[in-house]
Amino acid sequence: MSPVLLAVAVPLAFALAAFAMRSERARPWMVPAAGVCQVPVVVWLLAQRERFAPADGSWTGLDPLGALLLGYLCVLFGCCAFYAPPYLRLRSERPNRVFCSMLLVLFAMMNFFAVSQHVGLMWVTIETTTLSTAPLLYFNRNRRSIEATWKYLLIGSVGVALALLGSFFLGYAALHAGLGSSLVIGDLVANASSLSRPWLHSAFVLLLIGYGTKMGLAPMHTWKPDAYGEAPGLVGALLAGGFTSCAFVGLLRFYSICVAAGDGAFARELLLAFGLLSMAVGGVFMVRQRDFKRMLAYSSVEQMGILVLGTAVGGVGLFGALLHMLGNGFAKGVLFLSAANIHRHFGSKSTDEVRGALRILPASATLFLLGFFAVTGAPPFALFLSEFTILRAAVSEQRFAVAGAFLGLLLLVFIGMGATVLTLVQGEPLAGRERPAARPERVQKLVPIVALLALVLLLGVWVPQPLEAALWSAARFVEGIR
Amino acid sequence: MSEVLNPLLVLVLLFNFLMLGTSRVAAVINAAAAQGTLLGVAYLAMHGGSGVRALALGLAMIGIKGIAIPRILRGALRSQGIRREVEPFVSFTTSLLLGAVATGLSVLFARTLPLAAGDAEALLVPASLATVLTGFIVLTTRRKALTQVVGYLTLENGIFIFGLTLIEAMPFLVEAGVLLDVLVGVFVMGVVIDHISREFSSIQVDDLTELRE
After folding, report:
1. Which listed residue, of A108, A332, A405, B127, carries a Cα 20 to 30 Å from B157's Cα?
2. Which of A134, A147, A202 sits opposite B210 (nearest CB)?
3. What is the pTM of this model?
4. Cβ of B146 under 8 Å from any chain A Cβ?
């Protein structure tokens, strides 16, 4: 067994332990315990990245993209995991056995995806993440959450089925070229120039639709507002930060095959179209959105658009997109978790009822407001840096129309999202609800949010050298610059 | 090879039309089950002789697609107490016509794609595309959640037909993983349908309208 699978085995072991455990009170602590135990494993793997680089024909290994994703998931999960015990204590009326173990299975499968190098294996792991999320979405067991789960399952499964067809097409492209038949990313990239073009093109379109459904790119995003709106905040944070990033990394791997085959331009046009459409759809639906959790979902659609748009711009733009992936994940964590605190206190997620949160829940409302500034790319947060990088790359490539549309859409998002957020945070509280919460907010439910906010702020002012090197090596890897 | 395979694939196509033309949910499930079994047989016919693993996988395919999944679906059907698909979004005649058009287009499209030597005379690629499209038609035009699951299954069947061209490329573990994911997926969908029917007292998909803009 390859040592990189240790990053999968550790959370999986905790998932089994959580499932076997009897105590409802102690079980939620397995989630942060897994997050902590994962840290040394990932540090060890990343430190010896060269040694674990995918060998020829090997199904697993750490390519630069996978290494970046693995480290990022470890940090994101590590922060979010500490939200689980205080959250589940508040929901102690519900059994949490399935919730805790599925949360850990989800984490394990996201890591498995990061280290997969075989197209089929990538498919199996991404489908398993989908299935393991279904019980998480349905945690609240009401009509709305069952409806969201159904849509998520059906749209997700159909999308991922198309991705399977795309994977097969990719295999056929190799088979037809007489390359034997390997579905390992490294082999496909190495032999890309002889792949059969019509099959490669059809494969990329199907894979873009399939993995784009998982990312929630418009117009395949329809599951997102329902799922994010009904999911517990913790699950929303992991979906919007972790799961969608996995799908993006998958897409980048397929894009790298297209680039190596000399068909980068074809893929870039498609990515650009999906990117602009997603940003536009996300922006338009955020305007006058009263449900603040659905608003976060549309923000996620828009952010995914930025990721593929940055990829389409290429070069420095791709570097920006990868940095944006990290910043978006951490900012989404801040937003979803603080929104969960607000939702819990008010018992509603509509700005018809939730107003003036700053007076009533000062800590969570402040964090939510700062999260809003972070996610819309206000300086000094990381997303400002990454969006500015993408913009600069577009301008230096003389793609002024793209740069103009990008800026315009960012402005639309800022205004649309700002109206809802300001009503929620600042507005006049409803009569009879203007008094501050009786007890101060629990520190345990704020610490993970503060940690995530610190990360998104830190990345905005200082990208540590090893991280910068990792981002560059991932960007070069995708574009085939050795 | 194609003399064994092509009759099987023609049968698969016939089951597509059966699925599109009938209103009885049980018949739709049976058609998908028969299709799954045929795929397992086709897999065995192509690769069954090449070792224990291929034999095991072919038998597992028949077991899962032909027996286990239909059993889950029939169980869900019984607990729902429904028999027929009523008032689909598109009438059965129209969906049959759509199916015919989709099959024709698949044959035309498959001709434009460059095929490897052995696959050109076999119906593998057109049959696969036609079955995928049939799955889509069922998914988008039916109201019952259960029928939509069968549509998903048909889509998956179509993809499996294409997978038959690639057996050497797919490692055993990955194929087994794909099969398992489909089984678990249908199982989870079955559980969700069960909960839907308890909450909404029907499994019409158009009752699911609480979440929208």
Report:
1. A108
2. A147
3. 0.95
4. no
Q: In the predicted model, is pLDDT for residue A316 greater than 90?
A: yes
pLDDT tens profile A224-240: 999 999 999 999 999 99
* A residues 55..74 contacting B (CB < 8 A): 59
Domain range annotation of chain A: 274-482
Residue B148 is assigned to a structural domain of this protein: yes
Q: What is the three-class DSSP state of A118?
A: strand
For residues B135 and B156, is the Cβ–Cβ distance under 8 A? Answer: yes
Within a domain: B213: no
- Rounded Cα distance, A340 and A235, in Å: 10
Tell me how many domains chain B contains.
1
> Does residue B189 lie in a domain region?
yes
Q: What is the C-alpha separation between A75 and A443, in angstroms, rounded? A: 20
Does the distance separating the beta carbons of A225 and B114 come in below 8 Å? no
Among B159, B195, B208, beta carbon nearest to A168 = B159
Is the omega angle on the peptide bond into residue A448 within 30 degrees of 0, that is, cis? Answer: no
- pLDDT tens digits for A110-136? 999 999 999 999 999 999 999 999 999
Enter the ipTM: 0.92
Cβ contact, residue pair B192, A151, below 8 Å: no
C-beta of residue A243 within 8 angstroms of C-beta of residue A133: yes
Find the domain containing B190 and state its range: 2-207
- Which chain A residues have a beta carbon less than 8 Å from that of B210? 143-144, 147
| Residue B100 falls inside a structural domain | yes
pLDDT tens profile B67-100: 999 999 998 888 877 777 777 888 889 999 999 9
Nearest residue on chain A to B177, judged by CA atoms?
Answer: A124
A264, A318 in Cβ contact below 8 A?
A: no
